[in-house]
Design a protein that fits this description.
Length: 136
């Protein structure tokens, strides 16, 4: 199945940072799931986050398949220490997305936690737990 999204012209592009624990969790989940992209609903904002190899972009879950904003050009190599925030570029495509920018990291972190609790360790998720048997 192929899903396509559209982008409007950029309204704004600016450098910013993502907490390192969130960046690491995104990379880990993509690797663990073994998929080209993760689709993570952010119910509180009515957005759908799409995490792929290159970027994280956000689509208005109530509208068409147009990207409202994106996180691009992650540069973890620019971090001096492991726990430093990861620099990236925030790209805004729709004026309506400006209101969500301040809440997005917190809301997205919560959505990632929920996604992880529901999908990691499930059949086909790329990870499993094998219990030890004790012979007594």
């Amino acid at each position: 199945m192929r899903i396509e999204f559209e982008r409007d012209r950029e309204i704004e592009r600016r450098p910013t940072f993502l907490p390192s624990d969130l960046y690491k969790k995104l990379r880990h989940l993509r690797t663990l799931q073994g998929k080209d992209a993760l689709f993570i609903p952010i119910r509180s904002l009515q957005y759908l986050a799409v995490v792929d190899e290159e970027e994280v972009f956000f689509v208005d879950g109530l509208g068409d398949r147009r990207i409202v904003l994106a996180w691009q050009n992650f540069r973890p190599a620019d971090c001096a220490r492991i726990g430093d925030p990861v620099p990236f570029e925030l790209v805004i495509y729709r004026e309506s997305a400006r209101d969500a920018v301040l809440r997005l990291v917190r809301e997205f972190s919560e959505a990632i936690e929920l996604y992880e609790s529901r999908h990691v360790g499930m059949p086909g998720s790329g990870a499993s737990i094998t219990p030890f048997r004790r012979d007594e």
